[in-house]
């Protein structure tokens, strides 16, 4: 018998089954042969929240949560963050290899070429209330893009897919910046395609009456690094949403609107917003012990701490901490940083956090940088969505071309009422004859 097998004895019937083990996994459908009789549907696995189920093979991002390792296409995140631009990393994620000089120039040109939004989209943006959450606007605008590019539903056409991917990567900073300007009652600033990807974003956010906006190079680079750190993170909640929606062959704009909606939640990309609110609520370093006590007592969570996969320091949090110091040199120190550092110090020495392996995640410090860039907290999840666009789209494309993938459709264990018949007295709405 091969070593790469698993033998299961069903104690209900006494029968034994041998099933293959490949890449440390068994295939759930192999369990279906395990039955108590011909009427039995066959054994299923029950795994709410996908705690121990691989839903795909993927060659994009690798995480070793115990060791705190994150690789994009094999390259360590710290090397990419130090030596590459976001657009180079986006190319790497999408195509699997870093671009050479000519490929990078062509990629940059293509992204620049698509940064503008159709004027009708601008009009749509104006219809939101002044206090609409920018993430709600972002999700709606991404979804609306599908109505402007109906050919995007040809998802099996590789050239078509690439075209939509370029459009989305190019347009998300514009959508994000417009959502910010709308909330402020400021006129929209059109893209300046002389600038870098993050530089142009800063231009669309903050340009006022000057003829040409010149981004501060330190802030521009800090933003580029933040974008790199957020570009992909394998099968997280929003990526899983992207793949699940895309599996029905919905166009990438509709699928990405769903992914962005998943990102919006406070347990995922909305956590950076919650971290800032939490730090403000704590208000002073002296209040940290009391706050930690309340968290341990079950009164809320320490936002920006903990991760489904990382049971060690999130490597992205380490890089953000370094970047933060560079931003402080330009804009001054945030008063919230002392509270954050003290929270981290206390938590990392506390039995509660040690035993549960809770460490700072990417969101713990990113919000402080965004705040120092003068962004309102509501913009934080949008700042996550901009760079994650390439991750979502690459994961979506990988799913589309994977012959093993089909429409995502989990099973359930039914816990409702057994079959029953309607009585005449059960219904109250008159039905026309
Ligand atoms: N503060 C306090 N306790 C926590 C925290 C936290 N931030 N995170 C987890 N715990 C505790 C849980 O209460 C649980 O304790 P118990 O065993 O006594 O019941 C234990 O640690 C295990 O936590 P789970 O919730 O089972 O872990 P899960 O993998 O389901 O959740 C999650 C991961 C959602 C990230 C969680 O740690 C959390 O809510 N963190 C705060 C929100 C946050 O920062 N999210 C951003 C994640 S990064 C990202 O999405 C980009």
Your description of this structure?
50% of the residues lie in helices and 5% in strands. With 433 residues, it is mainly alpha-helical. The strands form two sheets. It has a three-stranded antiparallel beta sheet with strand order 3-4-5. A two-stranded antiparallel sheet has the order 1-2. Helix 8 (217-229) runs antiparallel to helix 13. It is globular, with a radius of gyration of 24 Å. It binds acetyl coenzyme *A.
Features:
binds acetyl coenzyme *A; mainly alpha; 3-stranded antiparallel β-sheet; two-stranded antiparallel ribbon; globular; 433 residues
Shape: globular
Largest sheet: 3 strands, antiparallel
- Beta content comes to 5-15%
Structural class: mainly alpha
Low-confidence stretches: none
Concise summary:
The protein has helices spanning 77-83, 86-95, 101-113, 119-126, 134-148, 158-184, 197-206, 217-229, 237-246, 252-264, 271-282, 288-296, 315-331, 336-348, 351-355, 362-372, 380-401; strands spanning 5-10, 15-20, 61-64, 69-72, 75-76. The chain has 433 residues and is mainly alpha-helical. A 3-stranded antiparallel sheet has the order 3-4-5. A two-stranded antiparallel sheet has the order 1-2.
């Amino acid at each position: 018998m091969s070593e790469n097998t698993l033998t299961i004895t069903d104690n209900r019937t006494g029968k034994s089954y041998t099933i293959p083990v490949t890449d440390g996994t068994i295939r759930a459908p192999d369990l279906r042969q395990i039955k108590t009789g011909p009427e039995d549907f066959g054994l299923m696995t029950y795994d709410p929240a996908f705690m121990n189920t691989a839903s795909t093979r993927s060659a994009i991002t690798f995480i070793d949560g115990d060791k705190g390792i994150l690789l994009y296409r094999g390259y360590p995140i710290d090397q990419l963050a130090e030596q590459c631009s976001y657009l180079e990393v986006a190319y790497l994620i999408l195509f699997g290899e870093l671009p050479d000089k000519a490929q990078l120039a062509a990629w940059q040109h293509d992204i620049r070429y698509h940064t503008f939004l159709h004027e009708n989209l601008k009009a749509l943006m104006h219809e939101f209330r002044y206090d609409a959450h920018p993430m709600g606007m972002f999700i709606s605008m991404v979804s609306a893009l599908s109505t402007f590019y109906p050919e995007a539903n040809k998802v099996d056409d590789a050239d078509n897919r690439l075209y939509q991917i370029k459009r989305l990567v190019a347009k998300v900073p514009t959508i994000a910046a417009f959502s910010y300007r709308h909330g402020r009652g400021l006129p929209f600033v059109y893209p300046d395609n002389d600038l870098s990807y993050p530089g142009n974003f800063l231009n669309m956010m903050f340009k006022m009456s000057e003829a040409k906006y010149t981004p501060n190079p330190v802030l521009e680079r800090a933003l580029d690094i933040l974008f790199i750190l957020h570009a992909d993170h394998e099968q997280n909640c929003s990526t899983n949403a992207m793949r699940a929606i895309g599996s029905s062959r919905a166009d990438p704009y509709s699928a990405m609107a769903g992914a962005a909606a998943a990102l919006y939640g406070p347990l995922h990309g909305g956590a950076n917003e919650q971290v800032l609110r939490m730090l403000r609520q704590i208000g002073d370093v002296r209040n940290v012990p009391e706050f930690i006590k309340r968290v341990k007592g079950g009164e809320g969570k320490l936002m920006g701490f903990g991760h489904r996969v990382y049971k060690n320091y999130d490597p992205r949090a380490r890089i953000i901490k370094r970047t933060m110091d560079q931003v402080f040199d330009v804009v001054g120190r945030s008063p919230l940083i002392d509270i954050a550092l003290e929270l981290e110090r206390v938590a990392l020495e506390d039995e509660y956090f040690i035993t549960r392996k809770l460490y700072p995640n990417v969101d713990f410090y990113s919000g402080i940088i965004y705040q120092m860039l003068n962004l309102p907290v509501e913009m934080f999840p949008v700042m996550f969505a901009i760079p994650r666009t390439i991750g979502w789209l690459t994961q979506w494309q990988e799913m589309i071309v994977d012959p093993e993938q089909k429409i995502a459709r989990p099973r359930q264990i039914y816990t409702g009422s057994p079959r029953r018949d309607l009585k005449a007295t059960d219904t109250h709405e008159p039905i026309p004859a």
